[in-house]
Design a protein that fits this description.
This protein is an alpha+beta fold. It folds into four domains: 199 residues, no CATH class; 104 residues, 2-Layer Sandwich (Beta-Lactamase); 68 residues, Helix Hairpins (Orthogonal Bundle), CATH 1.10.287.130; 164 residues, 2-Layer Sandwich (Heat Shock Protein 90). It contains 17 helices and 14 strands. The radius of gyration is 45 Å and the shape is rod-shaped. The two termini are 62 Å apart. The C terminus is likely disordered.
Length: 614
């Protein structure tokens, strides 16, 4: 069995690539190659005994041997070009030439007749009426030439006798008619078989999937003609081991197991695989030049699965599989999973945000209500004017804090909806930075944090929204002071470079992990959030900063290391041009989990970079 399979594979290796995907043509070429190689081997096997018995051959005998070996050249021709009819015409010519050689040297005319009678039968294997008639015509012309040569005295007079001429002509006509009838019969048989084939083709087109036939080893024997339309490659590329070699390496064990399971059972085996094929071109029905792995669902079932008599017969059975392209479905599935994960995270962040906001609103409201009641109650109001002023100051500070929380929420809502209005105007940068530093100076002193101003007093004038830039600076400085422990340091830097203003706020605070950095700037997200958190705030500070920077067409860079501190650099264009109302532009955030000095905002560091582009 293994010898037969090996022999079949060797014969298949002679086939031209253009016909490997057409079973009928493939079979005809295989038969022609096998028949011609076998006849040539017989001639070669006959040569040693002939040489041993008769010695060196005469010239005509050597010519006869060469003519009988001429089909080897025909095999080479059909293997290289795929032209079966031309190769068989060479074989027909060899038969006629052999008959002429035998008759010329005085051989028996009956032997020459046999060679001439073989000529029409060559067309039977090519399934060509034209080849049958051409072979018969060559044989008739050859016999006529031999008769004329006999009458002229050039060869023995065997062909010149009337009964010999009639016998030769009758033999050629009979052989031609017989060969023609065989071709006609096979052609009608093929036409009767073509109707189911058309039905199969219509079924393939209606299914819209690739149909593949496998042998028991998984090798492909047949691929439906719609392979080019579905995957951008000819069917012949999947024949044999072509399909297996195009499957992703990690999916090949699953493919072989599916084929083996289908061959051993009556069940339909379903498996998902990645197949290397051409990618569909964007905007057209063709295919791009580059290859990609596309997801396919393979449904495999054994041929005649309900007719197997025993397990041995089942193993010998072939397997048919249907390959359905599920690349888009897989992509939708992945997108759905990502959207579900993002939605769950957003809901979690919203819950945490609401918890934080409720705390931020409740605390100042309690202070306002409590101290207002004390001032309104005659029995509770303190008699000391200084104490009353202190209570009023607490109410004012709580109200301002409450207003700040509400403003942050409103600003974030406007930024997300694209309705935040910017007023572009030229302004000096250094005085604005001084003002913002002065606003957080008291808070820094109260917390024991050193505020360092490391920027030149003379900076280029900037065109932009002064109020938005002020809010960006206050949020960055407030966050830095809030998350920096006592005896820590917050550094404010600024510089103009390459047509942009770079504002940098660095601290020696608690820092952020790489996991938190991946979500920094997202709405409702707080790094290391806990319900019992020791730091106040809603967590909207960086979200608002990101939105305002995005509206200015700028970008943000965040470097941080847990326990060492954080550095946030904002890059804004010097000449800002407002975006149309309703257009949202989200700033790009480059996040870096660094391992170098936390205070230096401009020096490159040996870090692990986590790009975040949204």
């Amino acid at each position: 069995m293994s010898f037969a399979l090996d022999f079949e594979r060797r014969i298949t290796s002679f086939l031209h690539p253009d016909i490997t995907g057409r079973p009928g043509e493939r079979l005809r070429h295989q038969i022609f190659i096998l028949r011609r190689l076998a006849s040539s081997l017989v001639v070669l096997a006959f040569m040693p005994p002939f040489l041993a018995a008769y010695g060196a051959p005469a010239a005509w005998q050597a010519l006869l041997f060469l003519l009988f070996l001429l089909p080897v050249a025909a095999v080479a021709l059909v293997s290289r070009t795929g032209h079966l009819v031309l190769s068989q015409a060479i074989c027909v010519a060899s038969f006629v030439a052999a008959a002429a050689t035998i008759a010329t040297v005085g051989g028996q005319w009956q032997t020459a007749v046999i060679c001439l009678a073989f000529a029409p039968f060559e067309g039977v294997f090519s399934q060509s009426r034209r080849m049958v008639l051409t072979g018969g015509l060559f044989a008739a012309l050859g016999s006529a030439g031999l008769v004329l040569a006999a009458h002229a005295g050039w060869i023995e007079p065997g062909f010149a006798s009337a009964h010999s001429s009639l016998f030769v002509l009758a033999a050629i006509v009979y052989a031609t008619a017989l060969a023609y009838g065989m071709v006609e019969f096979q052609d009608r048989l093929r036409q009767s078989d073509a109707l189911p084939a058309e039905h199969y083709r219509a079924a393939y087109d209606a299914i819209g999937d690739l149909v593949v036939h496998h042998d028991q080893n998984g090798a492909v024997e047949f691929v439906s003609p719609n392979c080019q339309d579905l995957f951008g490659m000819p069917a012949r590329e999947l024949v044999g081991r072509g399909l297996f070699e195009r499957i992703h390496v990690a999916d090949r064990p699953a493919f072989l197991k599916a084929i083996a399971d289908a061959a051993m059972s009556d069940d339909c085996i379903i498996v998902s695989l990645r197949l290397r094929a051409l990618a569909p071109s964007a905007g057209s029905s063709g295919y791009a030049a580059e290859a990609m792995f596309r997801w396919v669902e393979m449904r495999a079932r054994r041929f005649g699965h309900g007719e197997a008599r025993d397990r041995t017969e089942a193993v010998r059975g072939r397997v048919v599989s249907i390959l359905h392209d599920i690349t888009l479905a897989k992509q939708y599935e992945d997108d759905l999973k990502a959207a579900r994960t993002a939605s769950e995270e957003a809901n979690l962040w919203k819950d945490q945000f609401l918890a934080n906001v409720s705390h931020e609103l409740r605390t100042p409201l309690n202070a306002i209500i409590g101290f207002a009641e004390m001032l309104a109650n005659v029995q509770l109001v303190p008699q000391d004017p200084e104490k009353r002023r202190e209570y009023a100051s607490i109410i004012q500070q709580s109200g301002l804090h409450l207003l700040s929380v509400v403003n942050s929420i409103l600003d974030m809502s406007k930024i997300q909806s694209g309705t935040f209005d910017l007023c572009s105007e030229p302004f000096a940068v250094a005085p604005l930075i001084d003002l913002c530093c002065d606003m957080v100076k008291l808070k820094a002193q109260t917390g024991g944090v050193q505020l360092v101003r490391a920027y030149p007093k003379m900076l280029d004038e900037v065109t932009g929204d002064k109020r938005a830039c002020k809010q960006i600076l206050i949020n960055l400085l407030s966050n830095a002071v809030k998350f920096t422990p006592r005896n820590g340091r917050v550094t404010m830097k600024a510089m103009c470079a390459e047509g942009a203003l770079i504002l940098s706020v660095s601290d020696t605070g608690i820092g952020m992990s790489a996991r938190d950095l991946a979500h920094i700037g997202d709405p409702f997200f707080q790094a290391g959030v806990r319900y019992d958190r020791p730091y106040e705030g809603t967590g909207l500070g960086l979200s608002v900063v990101r939105g305002l920077v995005g509206l200015h067409g700028g970008s943000i860079r965040v470097e941080s290391e847990p326990g060492k501190g954080t550095c946030i650099s904002v890059r804004l264009p010097l000449d800002f041009k407002p975006l149309p109302r309703g257009v949202k532009h989200v700033a790009q955030i480059e996040t870096i989990s660094r391992r170098s000095n936390a205070e230096d905002a401009y020096q490159p560091s040996a870090e692990m970079m986590v790009k975040k582009i949204a």
